[in-house]
Write a structure and sequence with these properties.
The chain has helices spanning about 5-20, 25-35, 35-55, 75-85, 95-105, 110-115, 120-130, 155-160, 170-180, and strands spanning about 60-65, 65-70, 110, 135-140, 145-150. It has about 200 residues and is of the alpha+beta class. The chain folds into 2 domains: about 5-75, Winged helix-like DNA-binding domain superfamily/Winged helix DNA-binding domain (Arc Repressor Mutant, subunit A, Orthogonal Bundle), CATH 1.10.10; about 95-180, Arc Repressor Mutant, subunit A (Orthogonal Bundle). The chain has a 3-stranded antiparallel beta sheet. The chain has a two-stranded antiparallel sheet with strand order 1-2.
């Protein structure tokens, strides 16, 4: 095997390991790279040595009958902080529902969000505020002056939007729903719905 061919196969091996969500056995590597099993083992061992020698942020280990990439132990503190960061975790269904309401009806009060969803949304709104996706944008000029909520720059960044004007129109979706449910009982979407208790979480 020439040096160039070896480099190409090592590069391909690294790509396979990167996209795999489980250890790759030598047999699987051999089949994917069109080499024999002994060559596959040699390529994996060579890549493991290469990653260590260039102080890579990843290490290649032989575990559970196969080879798999892991983050380097020296990076554990940074990786753990990143993974546990609330800003990087996925939004729950409740959070997505609440965010959609705020995005399309902003500025909107906490009570209005809860009324539309039909459940208490205080905890979800707080969680979205903690992430910087939802912000306090003012107060409503009514008794008690409730806080008004809207979306922040983080929302646009996550969705890859230039501005709120880039949000997709709801009209086509509402039209499709209306066609499918023409015979269903009519509901006043502006009227407050019964609010049920929801756990104080995302």
């Amino acid at each position: 095997m020439s040096e160039t061919a070896g480099d190409d196969r090592t590069r391909a091996l690294e790509a396979l390991l990167f996209v795999s969500d489980e250890p790759l056995s030598a047999a699987v590597v051999a089949q994917a790279l069109d080499v024999d099993r002994k060559q596959a083992e040699s390529l994996c061992a060579g890549l493991a040595d290469e990653l260590e020698s260039r102080h890579s942020g990843t290490v290649l280990r032989n575990v559970a009958g196969g080879w798999r990439l892991f983050t380097h132990p020296d990076t554990s503190e940074v990786v753990e902080r990143f993974v546990l960061s609330s800003r990087q975790s996925r939004l729950t269904k409740a959070a997505l529902e609440t965010l959609a309401i705020v995005a399309y009806k902003q500025p909107v009060t906490r009570h209005q969000v809860s009324a539309i969803r039909g459940v208490n949304s205080d905890g979800v709104l707080r969680a979205l505020q903690d992430r910087g996706i939802v912000l306090e944008v003012g107060r409503e000029e009514t008794p008690g002056r409730p806080v008004l909520y809207g979306t922040g720059p983080e929302f646009l960044e996550r969705l890859g939007l230039a501005s709120l004007a880039s949000l997709p129109s709801l009209a086509p979706l509402l039209g499709a729903v209306a066609g499918e449910e023409a015979d269903a009982p009519q509901v006043d979407l502006e009227a407050p719905a019964p609010v049920e208790a929801e756990p104080d979480s995302e």
